[in-house]
């Protein structure tokens, strides 16, 4: 088995998670595509096809991405309108109206347990043994993500979770290099600005925020590990399948075609519609 890819958030794990993803590759792909299909058919109260008690996807699309704040901020950076400092401060992100947004509303107090762990594992695994394997993989994903988020001073932080989700799925979809720490932190600032303008997500309960956190980490981490494993094995069909899944992840949250979303040295860019 090839060594585990050393992405920014998965530096310290053994080969166990990658080996399990490789062994369950076909089942994992089928399950993830199935979950995305059920999400598309389900009502907002039942998104992702697993227990979920708030319309996160619809809320994000209408209250954040349709404001185009991230796109506008990054375009100003790219054009050099106000230099590298054009992104808002991470400690007090400014909204377009000049006010500040209390970022603590996007943090949550964790329950100490994984709320969606077994629901996700049962959805992906087709047998008790496969479900047990997926519990181990998901636990490894959650633990390592939480460790790296804490290292960067961003534990239990939905804005940081979203920056990870957007950047990592965009790089898989486009076949790019893993983002660096600074890119995740810069993107977090623009996410904060977008949320600050809309006021979205701040009214979620701690439990809802933790569920959202687990969904972002799980779906991104599984797609990333599967993609890296397919790349190392030279499985072109698998690579394309995981890229497609990364695109479905992006579209499920933003409701924007993934071809328009990318992460570059200038940060997150959302290309205008033709």
Q: What is the structure about, briefly put?
A:
The protein has 274 residues and is mostly helical. It has helices at 16-23, 25-41, 56-63, 69-79, 117-124, 128-151, 158-174, 181-198, 206-233, 236-254, and strands at 261-264, 267-270.
Task: Give your account of this protein's structure.
This protein has 10 helices and 2 strands; from the N terminus they run ααααααααααββ. It is mostly helical and 274 residues long. Strands 1-2 form a two-stranded antiparallel sheet. α1 (16-23) crosses α6 (128-151) and α6 crosses α9 (206-233). The longest helix has 28 residues, at 206-233.
Instruction: Count the DSSP helices.
Output: 10
Numbering strands along the chain, what is their spatial order in the largest sheet? 1-2
- Biggest pleated-sheet summary: 2 strands, antiparallel
**Radius of gyration (Å):** 18 Å
Q: Which segments are poorly predicted (pLDDT under 50) over 5 or more consecutive residues?
A: 1-6, 40-55, 82-99
Instruction: Calculate the terminal CA-CA distance, rounded to whole Å.
Output: 44 Å
Helix content: 55-70%
Mean pLDDT, all residues: 74
β-strand number: 2
Order of helices and strands: HHHHHHHHHHEE
Based on secondary structure, the structural category is mainly alpha
**Anisotropy-based shape:** globular
Beta-strand content: under 5%
